[in-house]
Amino acid sequence: MPELPLLSDLTIAGLAIDPLLTFGGLLAGLLVGLTGMGGAALVTPMLVLVFGVPPAAAVSSDVVASAAMKPVGAWVHARAKTVHWRLVWWLSVGSIPGVLIGTWIFARVLDTDAAEETIRLWIGGVLLLAVSAMLVKNYIARRRRLAAQDHAPAPLQGTDLPVRIAPTVILGALVGLLVGTTSVGSGSLVVTTLLLLYPLLRPSVLVGTDLTQAVPMLVAGALAHAGFGAISVAVVVSLLLGQIPGVWLGAKLSSSYDGHALRWLLMVILAATAVTLIGAPRAVTGAVAIVGVAIVSALIVRDRQAGQRRRTLEPELTSILDSSRTDRGVGVVRRND
What we know:
Layout: E1 10-12, E2 15-17, H1 19-35, H2 39-50, H3 55-79, H4 85-110, H5 115-150, H6 165-182, H7 188-197, H8 203-228, H9 233-253, H10 260-277, H11 282-336
Antiparallel strand pairs: 1-2
Helix pairs in contact: 1-2, 1-9, 2-3, 2-5, 2-10, 3-8, 3-9, 4-6, 4-8, 5-7, 5-10, 6-7, 10-11
């Protein structure tokens, strides 16, 4: 496929770079760094709907860009020893063949007359699946927090956690298939399913394992898309020039901002985007966006009110505890007398 005609006057090493696309990559990287949400779920729809990149080129180019981005985070976790290597191995046993089969299906669809429309539908469907996975992940996290308030939680395990081989390989194969056909799913779907399969896995190991398992799958997918897909080198380079500093900056900012409200807002945007990609009327897309924003606003208000109640009660609780300690101290003194 010939290079996409990007509107740009910037040329690096003979390659046309689109500054607007680089800026889009910067914003996407910033959001990924701040929220930890999957990059492909943001980037691929952005390429299609905002920059008018054909869906086939958007998928192939994002697979290659992701293959260049993921090793950075994986290397950090490998150095910190927060990677469950046996989990990575068994996920890769499924995901590498899965992504190759997915890319083969992708290439076969490219030869059809309805290729672009079919790939748009695939991206929209997998986006809806990714949003559902994010909701399930938040639900699991909330249940864990509530359970921890009632009783002591079970001790979390790290890289020595036993692996359930069959479901892990199946998970890898399914995710690889989705990534090969849409580029979406290597993060959000894996994290949520691993939470269900391994509820006692320590969060840092969960994240490190997710990042690391994506590397061999994406490298295999990038090589396959280079041979059978529709990669645009200009799109890949333009994206990476923005994504790399964006992720770094977002990760730095995340230490002072938990990204909670932003995650909910991004889920609303992704849901509306998915509805648009599958061809729903604009009225439906608008309704999804309006209802989603209303729900997010209600959640933000609820969380702020809960925070204010906690801040109001903290001095009273502290006073009660101090009085209790004082009373116990007086009782001890009297017994000693």
